Amino acid sequence: WATYGYSISEFEIWDLPPAPPEPTLGLVPEPVSVEEQDATPFTLHQNTRIVAIGDGAQAPARYLADVLRPSTGHRLPVVGQGWGPAPIVIEVGPGNGPDGHEAEGYTLTVAAKRVRIGADTPNGALNGVQTLRQLFPQWVEAGTVTGAEWTVPAVTITDYPRFAHRGMMLDVARSFYPVSEVKAYIDAAAQFKVNRLHLHLTDDQGWRIAIDNPRDNPSGIDYGLLTEVSGATAMTYNGNGQLMGTELGLTGHYTKADYAEIVRHAGENGMTVIPEIDVPSHTNAALHAIPQLNTPGAQPRPKPGEATVPHNGTGSVGYSSFDAGSDVTYEFVEHVLTEIAEMTPGPYLHIGGDEAHVTSHADYTKMVDAFTRSATSLGKTVVGWNEYAGTALPQDKAVVQFWNGNRAAVAGAVRDRGAKVILSPAAHTYVPQKQDLRQPQGGTWACGGACGLDRHYNWDPGTFIPNIAESSVLGVESALWGEFIRRLGQAQYYSFPRIIATAEVGWTPQAQRDYGDFKTRLAKVGGRLTVQGTNFFPTADVAWL
Ligand code: TNX
């Protein structure tokens, strides 16, 4: 065969049908322990009941019913004790979940005549619900009644997360996402047990959250201008010349009721909302809207009333700064953080602190220290990007979110200040970095080329920052920045399936993780995403079913 210049084996590979997929339950993230039983599967029937036992079992039970009803067409009543034949039982309360993993652990047993989810907490039970959901045929994700046989294989599962924080960040500042799109983004990620929603609410190009005026308002600031002026702006064009701005309706803001609705919907999906007010840089939108924030003599940039932001409508960063020498800066940030703290039930306040390229180090430290004190005195745990790691963080009460740069400084904050760490390393979690060079938008700086699914999967959060204990790592977070990406469909096309990899990185024990195995399970998940209408990039090295 040497004469023909190719080998027979190569030739044969082209002629063979694709290898049959390996049998897999298709569970993602991979649970800690799964035992498949050689037994009769459970079948969901027209008269199956969902039995909720214990305080807090109602919500996960209703969540399951909401998932199963549209496609099965069954009534699936959620009832209390006293069940009929072959029920699905969800039991919440002390001793029902795996010991030592009370916060989010669960057990799931499926037998011919009974399904049982046991957990200590409602969020643990919800995790069990998400696993059970993946054990149904993919048609369960359909929005209309579908004639499938609703069987679930007999299994015994014990499961809990490696890390408490499995987050996703959505940049709603560069381009606005209406509440309905935020909810859909939540829904798609929640099925993979993502449990934190970090909202990047403010940046140079827009201010997305309503702030009321305080009673005591020394500088006479009209906080309503934040959303009136800078809720009406957005990025105009991205670095690739793609239209991003007002013309596409990508402006807007959340009223307090909108924000409360996002918090409620997130909570229903087991997610805590982490609001970010990015200061002291990334503040052009605030400077634009509030004249008093500008250094005396300086022009508010750009002028109020302009529909888009001509000053740097593209993607550059770090060109704006608050004035460290002005009292208005501190008065403003204190009030904004007070309002955000009031409307946020979760324990965190994110103050940004990234890329202050035009702020002197002294000014940066002075401002960030004051903002940290404000957040802390409001009873919240302050979070900031890793640039703030060297500032006066409160002892044992601060969180540093790493994205790029100095890992030793993060280790220093852990050692000296007892800080905890969220990991969003750009090469492993940044959604707007292209996952394949065929993706038209997005950047390539983090990986010197595409940041493929393998890059998002193959890393260990436990050892990523040298010289810190794994117990100092809260977890991982995927980050969807908005300079290239806008609207739900595109957001999903760039985040999926890599966000699923991040979910597994945060959940599954390191020793159990294997990229090849992940891809086999993910191939099956692709069908579910398609049926439910979640957009995703069909990664080339996954044999999508
Ligand atoms: C840096 S990552 C930023 C963002 C950009 C992102 C992507 C971080 C903390 N700040 O302002 O959107 O790069 O270009």
Describe this structure in words.
The two termini are 35 Å apart. Strand 10, helix 4 and strand 11 (196-200) form a beta-alpha-beta unit. It contains 15 helices and 19 strands. With 545 residues, it is α/β, with parallel strands linked by helices. The longest helix is centred in the C-terminal third of the chain and has 18 residues, at 515-532. An eight-stranded parallel β-barrel has the order 10-11-14-15-16-17-18-19, surrounded by seven helices. It has a seven-stranded mixed beta sheet with strand order 1-9-6-7-5-3-4. A two-stranded antiparallel ribbon has the order 2-8. 30% of the residues lie in helices and 16% in strands. The protein has two domains: 33-159, 2-Layer Sandwich (Chitobiase, domain 2); 165-532, TIM Barrel. Residues 317, 354-355, 385, 403, 481, 483 line the site of ligand TNX.
